[in-house]
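FORM 12-B: Structure-to-Sequence Request
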């Protein structure tokens, strides 16, 4: 462990804010492993949102009056001030009242809380029965919030409402999530009583009914009033971009850079394709690999086992060489998610590491084959040295960092930028020397570069690259289809995501760009004394930050 630090007034304020957040959002408490609220659901009502805003302003006022006692405090104050101010700006802009999309809104969050909820004991399942019975009230509050936007003629886009309606139909189906969740309920080393199983089945029906009512609201009220306009406009986009990055960038410059970066990655792909199959195009090399039985995994069991083996090997290889990896961090569980939407994601460990970090793979219905060449880099992205190392390291240094820095200060550009940086680093370190694996990494980098262009292009109303008008869904779908090697269903889901979650998708590649700039600036400053392991340790020990704060902190390191 790191040397224990005497908490400052700013630390106490930050720690207290995490406690408040855990009280506001039981899902957050569950995610970070905080006790309390295990049988509760988040309150998404307008009243709850307004109450949170009052609390944020109170914290900001208190923070403003405190003087940092050291550099750690300076970083905390800078990062918290920026983050909380952005929350207020987002609320004041009305974004909370049109917050519905196909991937990261309360429409998904109300169900997602169950993925990380404890299931080991009888008490855990009693809590889950209680939690399921509160799904309906949680969604009812969310409906009232969306009604405010609807009545103000500021509803979400029709495309997003339709996507969520489809998701609700899946949840409320005969074999929908809650029914299957209750049906498969089991604890560790103890049988659940027939009474508890019956309670769970009834609670699952109540949760399903809650989603059914939500679906009716979406179809009968929200959809008729939803806007046909997908683009969010420059003003709101600038706000969201700054929030996702934790720094303000020149969006027009970023758009042009995105086009250049996309072209550069495509050229790099062409060189690797020739290594795989002399004279082949990128498309031909990919087609060749997709027919190669040596890169195929069959079934989710084989996928899970392969993920775990590759992850464990990366931990063992990198520990002590380019990273300091403490024992609790070395445990990373690779999981097949209970959902079927196709996403791959990471959830961090609990604060005491009793629940380890986990890499989740949501496998779409009917998908039974997986390509190792395409997904090797994914394991590095989600695991070590990617998200897991980043998040778990911040959790580990609890003697130095306050709870907010460790557990609540996630910024997409910082987190996802690091994960893309980690992918490139593994290439630099020789772990992607196999041309097939390297092509897989470049395939992912190409996708991230393409969506910088697409996302900014759509929401700022940029001219199409072919000069035939402005970006729209069909053009974006075609553009993305040409730049990713994935199924049509996945591409459509992804493009719909970009249209409904403005500013988030570019934060990956722009975040990577800034992380690489930070490393280069640090190396230039240190000269012959530059030590990449020390750079990684210093940067990761800062915890989650906005990228502006990261740049300031590393300039002083």
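FORM 12-B RESPONSE
SEQUENCE OUT:
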């Amino acid at each position: 462990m790191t040397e224990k630090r005497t908490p400052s007034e700013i630390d106490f304020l930050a720690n207290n804010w995490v406690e408040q957040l855990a009280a506001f959002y039981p899902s957050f408490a569950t995610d970070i492993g905080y006790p309390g609220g295990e049988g509760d659901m988040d309150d998404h009502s307008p009243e709850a949102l307004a109450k949170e805003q009052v609390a944020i302003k109170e914290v900001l006022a208190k923070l403003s009056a405190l003087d940092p006692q050291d550099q750690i405090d300076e970083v905390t104050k800078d990062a918290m001030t920026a983050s909380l101010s952005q929350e207020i700006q987002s609320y004041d802009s009305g974004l909370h009242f049109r917050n519905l999309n196909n991937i990261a809104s309360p429409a998904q969050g109300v169900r997602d809380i169950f993925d990380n909820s404890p299931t080991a004991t009888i008490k855990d399942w009693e809590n889950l029965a209680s939690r399921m019975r509160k799904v309906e009230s949680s969604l009812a509050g969310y409906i009232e919030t969306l009604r405010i936007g609807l009545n103000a003629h500021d509803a979400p886009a029709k495309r997003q409402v339709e996507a969520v309606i489809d998701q609700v139909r899946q949840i409320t189906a005969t074999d929908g999530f809650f029914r299957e969740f209750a049906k498969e309920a089991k604890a560790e080393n103890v049988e659940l009583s027939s009474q508890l199983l019956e309670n769970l089945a009834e609670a699952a029906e109540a949760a399903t009914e809650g989603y059914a009512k939500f679906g009716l609201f979406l179809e009968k009220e929200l959809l008729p009033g939803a806007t046909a306009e997908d683009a969010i406009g420059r003003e709101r986009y600038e706000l969201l971009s700054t929030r996702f990055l934790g720094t303000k960038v020149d969006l027009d410059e970023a758009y042009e850079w995105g086009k250049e970066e996309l072209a550069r990655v495509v050229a790099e792909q062409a060189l690797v394709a020739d290594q795989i199959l002399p004279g082949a195009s990128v498309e031909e090399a990919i087609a060749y690999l997709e027919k190669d039985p040596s890169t195929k995994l069959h079934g989710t069991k084989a996928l899970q086992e392969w993920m775990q083996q590759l992850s464990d090997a990366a931990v063992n290889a990198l520990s002590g060489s380019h990273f300091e990896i403490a024992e609790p961090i070395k445990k990373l569980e690779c999981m097949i998610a209970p959902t079927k939407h196709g996403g791959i994601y990471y959830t961090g460990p609990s604060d005491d590491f009793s629940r380890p970090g986990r890499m989740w793979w949501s496998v779409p219905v009917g998908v039974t084959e997986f390509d190792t060449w395409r997904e090797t880099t994914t394991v590095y992205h989600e695991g070590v040295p990617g998200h897991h190392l980043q998040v778990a390291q911040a959790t580990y240094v609890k003697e130095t960092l306050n709870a907010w820095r460790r557990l609540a200060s996630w910024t997409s550009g910082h987190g996802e930028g690091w994960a893309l940086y980690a992918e490139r680093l593994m290439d630099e370190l020789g772990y992607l020397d196999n041309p097939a694996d390297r092509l897989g990494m470049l395939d992912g980098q190409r996708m991230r570069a393409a969506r910088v262009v697409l996302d900014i292009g759509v929401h700022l109303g940029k001219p199409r690259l072919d000069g035939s008008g402005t970006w729209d869904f069909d053009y974006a779908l075609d553009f993305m289809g040409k730049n990713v090697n994935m199924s049509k269903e996945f591409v459509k889901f992804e493009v719909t995501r970009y249209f409904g979650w403005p500013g988030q998708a570019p934060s990956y590649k722009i975040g990577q760009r800034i992380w690489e700039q930070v490393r280069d600036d640090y190396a230039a400053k240190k000269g012959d004394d530059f030590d990449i392991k020390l750079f990684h340790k210093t940067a990761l020990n800062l915890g989650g930050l906005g990228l502006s704060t990261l740049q300031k902190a590393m300039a002083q390191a």
